[in-house]
Amino acid sequence: MRRLALVFVLAAGLGACAASPSKDLTEAHRLCKQIEQGVTTQATVDGCTEIIEHSAWDDERVEALNRRGVANEQLGRIDEAFADFDEAVSLAPYFSAAYNNRANLFSRQGNNARAVQSFQAAIRANPDNAAAYNNYAWYLASRGDYDGALVRVEKALALDSDYGAALDTYGHVLMGLGQSQAAMSAFERVIVLEGSKAVRMYQEALDGWGYEPGRTDGVMDAQTDAALSACIRDNCRLLLE
User: Fold this and answer.
1) CB 180: neighbour CB atoms within 10 A?
2) Which residues, at least 6 apart from 168, have a Cβ–Cβ distance to it below 8 Å?
3) Do residues 68 and 48 touch, judged by C-beta distance below 8 A?
């Protein structure tokens, strides 16, 4: 029900590297960045391609490769997506985001060994990237390795204590470890930080598991609270499946 988080931010600038004669890439940047708002069309891909081919800056090209990889995956072009992520990390070996997205893709393809390698590479590339630890933690939790997931998600939260996605992962991990009260507290913190969007996500998942939250409109009421508590008690795994 919940995908591993996509990652887009470049860790640090690579500096300039002449590609081809400079041109106005304003529209290309607008199109390429649409992927971060959930817009995936051929125009999105074309915008990223224009940046890759014409930008004079390596960091722009690397970010465009990463974004195009995400877009290609969402359009079902798996080989092209892998090629984009591979080229991004080849140009910028410290670019944790592309390792993360490649790991997510390996995971969705069922290639667990390569997924683990890429998750670990993302952490090595940028040990201060909370998303790298969180994505790896979610992957481990989804496979029932709650102890391994706990170590990684606690590191993510040490880097960013208000990171909603990591707090959500933390709640799922604590649920899996049988720490019901602490898990409920983690989910409540997610709701404080992310509001109705998080509540709606939990309500829809609870409804799918048959816990009858009573509503799926993003309003946290007593029935939703009781349904979430029951789910945690049963280790229903909520969004992990």
Assistant:
1) 16
2) 186, 187, 190, 198, 239
3) yes
What is residue 22's predicted lDDT score, i.e. its pLDDT? Answer: 62
CB-CB contact of 230 with 210 (8 Å): no
Q: What is the 3-state secondary structure (H, E, C) of 212-239?
A: CCCCCCCCCCHHHHHHHHHHHHCCCCCC
Give the pLDDT of residue 13: 45
Residue 16: CB atoms within 10 A of its CB come to 12
Residue among 198, 202, 178 at smallest CA distance from 190:
198
Taking a C-beta distance cutoff of 8 angstroms, is the pair 213, 238 a contact?
no
d(CA 4, CA 52): 26
- How would residue 241 be classed by pLDDT, with cut points 50, 70 and 90? confident
Q: Could you tell me which residues come within 8 angstroms of residue 30 by beta carbon, excluding any fewer than 6 positions away?
A: 47
Q: Cα(165)–Cα(203) distance, rounded to whole angstroms?
A: 17
For CA atoms 66, 72, 76, 80, give the dihedral sign. negative
